[in-house]
């Protein structure tokens, strides 16, 4: 069957819809950041990132419209005020692009592996190529600038070893074993993401126009900080270094470059995606204290996400993705 004869599946339209909304949001942020970045090498990366995203959004739009679905509103130039004062340092801008590229890569992998149509698979494969190239560029530039935060490392043991006791699972009772490399990796990644969420939350709370939203953001920052303190203690207990905070990369500006809608959506995006990363941390942990800690963190993420949802709906900022027909309602109308 010709690819043009294959209609989009529910999964395919779902990932395209999500990619469009998230992509237009990130592109708005990148456009603003480009206006404040002074470092030439960092500016070059952002110029290319914006071009790549805009080309991808054009193709996503074509896929959606060609199948008769309405194009999401997403985010536009109306959601940014590019001539506002500097809110972040150049280094933070680069670190933001690095972490958001990781989010993008994971999204492209999911989109590719859930797509059937050849044109969609080719498209998401090209998105992955672009994402990998951007990942390498941001990592290389962070290393060059001396700002890339490497995960903890330790000296190897001489031989492979097997778990020889159920004490390996102990965390709250008895002597805790040191963290495994898998557990350290998950803690480190989750810390970097929580630090990013906290930093953006602080910046957003300075510039948000609505008092209700500023109060929500203040609570969200406190939640991120609690998670940072909890996970940092796990590393410190094993005399391992923790990632540096980035609050000092925020200026004192209260001049908002973003709409409150964009600020809120971005905050929700970070907390909702954090649940999956915390879930990976939970799945990769075998120490009982870590398992319980991740469960508490995920529960708190859900609580913040519920408050976020209520505010988004109240302000009519949350677009509804395509949904299946309500057959009962259709039958009632006959």
Overview of the molecule:
The chain has 334 residues and is an all-alpha fold. The protein is 65% helix and 0% strand. The protein has nine helices and no strands. It has helices at residues 10-36, 40-66, 90-113, 118-145, 181-207, 211-237, 260-283, 288-314, 327-332. Helix 1 (10-36) runs antiparallel to helix 2 and helix 3 (90-113) runs antiparallel to helix 4. The relative contact order is 0.12.
Which structural class best describes the helix and strand composition? Answer: mainly alpha
Major pleated sheet: none
Distance between the termini: 35 Å
What would the average pLDDT be, to the nearest integer? 93
C-alpha geometry: globular
Number of strands: 0
Instruction: Tell me the number of helical segments per DSSP (H or I, 4 or more residues long).
Output: 9
Q: Roughly how much helix do the residues carry, as a percent range?
A: 55-70%
A few lines on this structure:
Helix content is 65%, strand content 0%. It contains nine helices and no strands.
Short key terms for the protein model shown above:
DUF3231 family protein; DUF3231; Ferritin-like; 334 residues; mainly alpha; 9 helices
List the helices and strands and how they pair.
Blueprint: H1 10-36, H2 40-66, H3 90-113, H4 118-145, H5 181-207, H6 211-237, H7 260-283, H8 288-314, H9 327-332
